[in-house]
């Protein structure tokens, strides 16, 4: 009787221990990753707030020094103002009362200069700050990534030379100077939609289609002024990354197997080359908010950048500390979103 042979199977090393996670396990891993990252926000923000408070306290003088130079205020009156503002307490007590107010009541303190709660001052500018930053970031990516891909594929050509020159100019020219040049160009051609986000007749009015169109007429100037440097940075980074990836072994192997050049470039090379840019995106959002203070002042934009600048000059400590704390929180949120986007773009990356 002939024995029936079974098909041969080759076992890999540790094959019996190979485990493929289920959908539930993957979601649990993501949840644990998010929880762990969110829990690290608390000690990080506390450390950042303490450092910011210490740096602000190291500045010479205080907010009430201006009253000492005014002959209408006596030293006794200035001492009473210090007591009302809590500036007569020790720095440790001032910091502790500020943190305790945030944790227990969501109270970020009071603005000495504007005589208003800090939360209301920042709330008026927060929405426009985020909108302008996100739109500028979207503009930079939409323009820079295709340009970086095109210049990498057409390297050492005329288009590559022109794009590289424009990139160097974009990195060298400050954003506020670009804003001034754009404003001068608009005025030279008879335009009037410069400065701010709305024409005077639409300020304070309810939203209509005419007001939305007027906002778009004003919005393109800050987008170009603030986004030019980002376009240059992302384009050059994308070009350099793609040039490295195009010479990789797996790309040559894909070409040798007969895969089309477009598929090799977009599905393999670009997908790998864009990973560092996704990680960099988490750092760009707070940079757009805090790194464009002068451009925001020049264009009269209702963002928190000019508010931070004025609060530091006026030594309005609670406004400055809250804005710096917000910038740190935004940086951590940006990094978290960048990590999630990177894991989504590249399936090889796992949450650790």
Structural summary, described in words:
It is a single chain. The longest helix has 38 residues, at 209-246. The chain has a two-stranded antiparallel ribbon. The relative contact order is 0.12. It has 14 helices and 2 strands, in the order H-H-H-H-E-E-H-H-H-H-H-H-H-H-H-H. Strand 1 (110-111) and strand 2 form a beta hairpin. The protein has helices at residues 23-57, 65-68, 75-85, 91-105, 118-153, 158-172, 175-188, 209-246, 249-256, 261-273, 275-290, 293-299, 304-314, 317-345; strands at residues 110-111, 116-117. Helices cover 72% and strands 1% of the residues. Helix 5 runs antiparallel to helix 11 and helix 6 crosses helix 8 (209-246). It has a domain at 125-315: Orthogonal Bundle (MetI-like fold), CATH 1.10.3720.10. It has 352 residues and is mostly helical.
Structure characteristics:
single chain; about 350 residues; mainly alpha; MetI-like fold; two-stranded antiparallel sheet; about 70% helix
Count the E strands. Answer: 2
Overall outline: globular
Intertermini distance: 57 Å
pLDDT averaged residue by residue: 80
CATH H-level superfamily of the domain at 125-315 = MetI-like
Q: Main sheet: which strands, in order across?
A: 1-2
What pattern of helices and strands is seen along the backbone?
HHHHEEHHHHHHHHHH
State the helicity in percent bands: over 70%
The number of helical runs is 14
In the CATH hierarchy, the third-tier topology of the domain at 125-315 is known as MetI-like fold
Structural class: mainly alpha
**CATH architecture label of the domain at 125-315:** Orthogonal Bundle
**Largest pleated sheet:** 2 strands, antiparallel
What are the low-pLDDT stretches, counting only 5+ consecutive residues below 50?
1-18
Radius of gyration: 27 Å
**Per DSSP, what share of the residues sits in E-state strands of 2 or more residues?**
under 5%
